[in-house]
Amino acid sequence: MTTHPDLICLSHLRWDFEYQRPQQLMSRAARTRRVYYVEPPQHHDGEPHLTVRHEGQVHVVVPHVSTAQPWDAIEDTLAGLLRDFLYAEEVVRPHAWVYTPMMLAALDYILKSGVVYDCMNDLGSFRDAPPELSERERRLFQQADVVFVGDHGLWEAKRRVHPNVHPYPPGVDVPHFAQARTPLEDPADQRHVPHPRLGFVGVIDKRFDLALVAQLAARRPDWHLVFVGPVVKIDLSLLPQGDNIHYLGMRDHQELPAYLAHWDVALLPFAQNAATEFSFPTRAPEYLAAGVPVVSTAVPDVVRLYGEQGLVRIAATAEEFELAVADALSCDNCACQRQADALLVMMSWDHAWEHMDNLVQRAVRVPDARLRKNIQLV
Asked: For the residues of 169-197, what is the DSSP string, one character each?
């Protein structure tokens, strides 16, 4: 263990939800420092308390509080619990790594030596975003020493309000997903699904183009659509149904290569709306690492990084998706895969964490007044 300051991560995602950016980065941070990953509060009618478990080298901290009260009161309770916990753990002047402005009150209680805002998505554009989120984000920008964003479009938007913003799109664990290119047993819940299989792995939420999925399935009943992942904030009755549509639910991160190994094409069927304007699907590089041809809607950064290089087929309508999938099924993927592999070498999570950590170390050595004197508050 080095002399790196401890790290407190305030997240809007539970650790055992989809394994994505927060888990990837915090697992790597924990190799050289103590990392405390604070989940969103869980409802509890008794005395408020924290529970702690270990996920690898990461301490996952779960607040248990009554959520049947205003968010301000929940925050105050959470802040007090964290203050006492960090004191007991002898955590002194840690770095705070923040994923949500809604944890701002808890952040104020931490005597920290640096603040990182890792802005994965434009949370304010989500339909269910709290009305106070924008004001809290403005205040978080005032405190942050460095800001990371998940895609180029978000960088363009956020660099106007902070002088130290850096775009870091999702990385990829190449060795993990490259297992899909080796002989792996087809998972039991997928074996009955006929080929061709068109697969998606990830969260099915309001960013998903349900109409596109329904139309594609109806146009090609001989193609089977497989969805691996949780359904979040969508009425289940609205999900497209059919004999060729298969919802398998969420699977552990370690199991995913076995599913991808038996897909013929991977899909990114995201709607074109405010929530996806500043969104970079984590699965794009993972599909490529698995060696599966990819068809996506025109998500800006997928187009910029992969579509323009011919690594991902881009389609908008169900008709275009059908043609793109048919092309992917009929073409040799070897040349495209070699080109993708050369790009993915520079997109590993190890590579991303090393660069992000270096930027944090540099930023926290810059005096606050000098770093923030040019911030334009909006």
From this structure: ---B-HHHHHGGGS--PPPTTTTTSPSSE
Q: Dihedral (C-alpha) 184, 248, 11, 366: value to the nearest 10 degrees?
A: 40
Residue 228 belongs to a domain: yes
Residues facing 172 on adjacent strands: 348
Q: Tokens at residue 37, please?
A: 């990953």
What's the rounded Cα separation, in Å, for the pair 316 and 312?
13
Cβ neighbours around 372 below 10 Å, total: 18
The CATH number that applies at residue 117 is 3.40.50.2000
Q: Tell whether 215 and 190 lie within a shared domain.
A: yes
Pair type for strands 49-55 and 7-10: unpaired
User: Residue 94 corresponds to which amino acid?
Assistant: P
- CB-side exposure of 277: number of CA atoms within 13 Å? 12
d(CA 349, CA 26): 11
**Segment (H or E) for 116:** strand 114-119
pLDDT in tens, 322-331: 999 999 999 9
**pTM for the full model?**
0.80
Q: How far is CA 361 from CA 86, 114, 306, in A?
A: 22, 9, 31
One-letter identity of residue 348: S
β-bridge mates for residue 149, sequence order: 119, 167
Token pair for residue 33?
């420092």
Residue owning tokens 């690594």: 311
- Asked whether the predicted pLDDT for residue 37 surpasses 50, the reply is yes
Give me 256's structure tokens. Answer: 């995913």
Considering the domain architecture, whether residues 158 and 204 belong to the same structural domain is answered as no
In a domain? residue 51:
yes
More confidently predicted of 278 and 298: 298
Range of the domain at 42: 7-171+349-372
Over the stretch 161-197, which tens digit does the pLDDT of each residue have? 899 999 988 889 999 999 999 999 999 999 999 999 9
pLDDT band, very low/low/confident/very high, at 120 (cuts 50, 70, 90): confident
